[in-house]
Specification:
The chain is an all-alpha fold. Helices cover 66% and strands 0% of the residues. The longest helix is centred in the N-terminal third of the chain and has 26 residues.
């Protein structure tokens, strides 16, 4: 598959993740008397990955997340030469998704993204539950670690064929159910970057954590999985969350 097509697939997919996932939090989570709440937002994030994995997994692998791409590269599932274009596409998609969401959200009277209503991630005073920096760091590292472990396991050549998107989407849903009160859930630097760029201020100044922590968790998972569970026949393509080997 040509890199141009992969780039566009990652950009479109991450756009959808931010618009759908963050959009559910911004537009629907607290809607008067009929809000979808944490559970609804968690499900929305899982559904964005599930739908894009089936729609675009055969094009780019539907990583939609720089941490996932890095984890797969460390595990030998993604050629290092492709890592840069994937990450750029994901960040661009995340920012565009957040921009479109801001256009929609600002159509409501009195909406103020800077007042904490734009699904940004944070720690300390900017954590939904006012969790400490250390707690937020630990949460993001561990959640991303298990997310990448699930991805690597579900796309393993020994796994049941065709069910990877379901496992991955449900894993992301579970991660959000656990960690929304802690960091508003990142596990995805591109998802964090989009809203932070739109809002600026503290969201942008704290963005470093939501790059560093997910990348640490992803690297640990990518390093450990092939060593703990070595495989001889890896289903790297076609299929969600994997691409052709070099």
């Amino acid at each position: 598959m040509q890199m141009k097509q992969r780039f566009l697939a990652e950009m479109f997919g991450t756009f959808w993740l931010v618009l759908g996932g963050c959009g559910s939090a911004v537009l629907a989570a607290k809607f008067p008397e009929t809000g979808i709440g944490f559970a609804g937002v968690s499900l929305a994030f899982g559904l964005t990955v599930l739908t894009m994995a089936y729609a675009l997994g055969h094009i780019s692998g539907a990583h939609l997340n720089p941490a996932v791409s890095v984890g797969l590269a460390v595990a030998g599932r993604l050629p290092i030469r492709d890592l840069g274009p994937y990450v750029v596409a994901q960040v661009v998609g995340g920012i565009l998704g957040a921009f479109v969401l801001s256009v929609i959200a600002n159509g409501a009277p009195g909406f103020d993204a800077a007042a904490g209503g734009f699904a940004t991630n944070g720690y300390g005073a900017y954590s939904p539950g006012h969790y400490s920096l250390l707690a937020c760091l630990a949460c993001e590292v561990v959640m991303t670690f298990f997310f990448v472990i699930v991805i690597l396991g579900a796309t393993d050549g020994r796994a049941i064929s065709g069910f990877a998107p379901l496992a991955i989407g449900l894993c992301l849903t579970l991660i959000h159910l656990i960690s929304i009160p802690v960091t508003n859930t990142s596990v995805n630097p591109a998802r964090s970057t989009g809203p932070a760029v739109i809002v600026g201020g503290a969201a942008l100044s704290q963005l470093w954590l939501f790059w560093v922590a997910p990348l640490i968790g992803a690297c640990i998972a990518g390093f450990l999985y092939p060593r703990i569970f070595p495989e001889t026949n890896v289903a790297v393509a076609p299929g969600p969350l994997a691409i052709d080997a070099p």
